[in-house]
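Hey,

Quick one before I head out. I ran the complex with adenosine monophosphate overnight. Inputs first:
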Amino acid sequence: MDVLVIGSGGREHALAWKLRQSPQVGRLFVAPGNAGTAKTATNVALDASDHNAVAAFCEAESIGLVVVGPEVPLVAGLADDLRERGILVFGPSRAAAQLEGSKAFTKALCDEMHIPTAAYGRFDNPDAALAYLRTHSAPIVIKADGLAAGKGVTVAMTDAEAEEAVRACFDGEFGAAGAEVVIEEFLSGEEASLFAVSDGRTYRLLATAQDHKRAFDGDAGPNTGGMGAYSPAPVMTPELTARAEREIIAPTIAGMAARGTPFLGVLYAGLMLTDAGPKLIEYNVRFGDPECQVLMPRLRSDLMDLLLGSARGDLGGVEPEWRDEAALTVVIASKGYPGSYEKGRPISGLHQDFGDGVTVFHAGTTRGDGQVIATGGRVLNVTAIGDTVADAQRKAYEAVDRIDWKGGFCRRDIGYRAINRENR
Ligand code: AMP
Ligand code: GLY
């Protein structure tokens, strides 16, 4: 079967890399892709916001399955428009993508299904929001309702910061995404992610992971899309995973089905492990980036079985198998990211053999003059598997040190929480 992956990040390179290993996949396309996907698949210059163009390409090339990587096209209804034309898609409908597209939507579902999450209020005007802040003091969390490229959340440590964040949302800092605001109780604990794939009625748990959102070592600096990740997350014991499955994942899939908007695709739960148990911080309706880069190397069985089972609405008989080893990925980003950064510098040293179990997934790269050129904020994901997280970390940094790119930086402490646990 011929497959089209939508997206251009490290997540999509990891998906394409894993799909290339499937005996079920014939031709593999990535739109628009990057310099890494160009070696694994065929890049196509398609604009995912032009649903007609994507559908026309699928019809012309007899694409059997479309795999949508990022959230923006899902929230915009790309999956609906392709399905309407009879094209099989992995990814939720516009209605089901509201789990990521609207924080207030997810909070309402949590209320309805008694899913543990932070207490909250939702507001469509500044006066009501500011009045709520007078009775709920900092630390407190202010969230723009809609998609804000990961920037719509302020964890306010003072009342003044909280008020400022509310005003910024209603003043249009996040555009239409901030027209509604959710104010949430501050949860303390360690964060972890749990992934599941659903066919709308049932689901299969994938694995756990932990991300590193801040730009610099020791979790300092601004928030980013993620500077590194590993899987599994040792903090997610089998007991905590089973509890999160029972109290969070299962009622979400059941609640979405009961509403008549079944969730088909990958459900990524961002959890806070509080003293009172796991609580849902947020849902994403896609694989995490860079979490996907550590899930794919750990998946032993055929990814196509999961994607096709979900897309066709029947995961019956599909049981994903995982390697016991840990996987860890280090993101190399352009100096200046997540602020402004220089583009267009060549990267060398990518064509060597980094050894067993080491893979470099590309994100913001393109090919020019026979070289790989850095064009984005997050540029490379140096990924390794090992017997422990410490082992995977050592292999990943050995590879990082053999790549020559003057314009890049990375964190040197990816995996520290897990490694501290391993050393106990
Ligand atoms: P989100 O975009 O919803 O993932 O939020 C970004 C980050 O803000 C999360 O990864 C958490 O670190 C933090 N955060 C979100 N909600 C809360 C909360 N209720 N309590 C504490 N931290 C939070
Ligand atoms: N790494 C965080 C995300 O994909 O949202």
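Residues 245 and 357 are 30 Å apart (CA to CA).

Talk tomorrow,
K.
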